[in-house]
What does this fold into?
Amino acid sequence: MWTANISSSWLAGFTVCLSLIVSIGAQNLYVLRQAVSGRHVRACVAWCVLSDALLIAIGVAGMAQLLGSSPTLAHYLALGGALFLLSYGLFAWWRVFAAADASVKSSTGALAERGLLGVLGTLAVLTLFNPHVYLDTVVLVGSIGARQDGALKWVFVFGAASASLVWFAGLALAGRRLQGVFAKPLAWRVLDGFTGAMMLALAWWMWPGVALPL
It folds into this structure.
């Protein structure tokens, strides 16, 4: 039973985190550009994984205390998370069918030739000065992780960190080997379609837990 709970918590963290980071964003595009150029790729992946793990752990630790003292707050966080996932999934599908073509050739491309400190500094700004990062990791993923029992919260964090490692390592490989594919709008549309499906499935999973406590 305990082993099953560990596997379930790890898988929940892995699935939630992966569904949120698999999208077109400034951080992902920057890592992709660095992978295409072949410069400081490992450092970029390490930064992204460690920052995700730290922010999610902070969210889980803080949310765990707040949720434990306020069931009503837990309800509204779950409700907000479900609605956010729903809107995020629908917006991802809107990008698939209605948005203008996306391209990997963004303004981050001009930064690819910087040294290690310059690359990590730029990546830190893209990560820490993006409000959406805090909404995803600290608030949304943290609130879901805080619902786990006891030590399973940290199994959830480990699962989320594993998803971050898998994604950014895969992104680095893709940027190096599939440059032509990821430069095409169709590839991003397929990725957005998959992301939208996962987000809607997670919204459905969270919805039964939003009933107000008696």
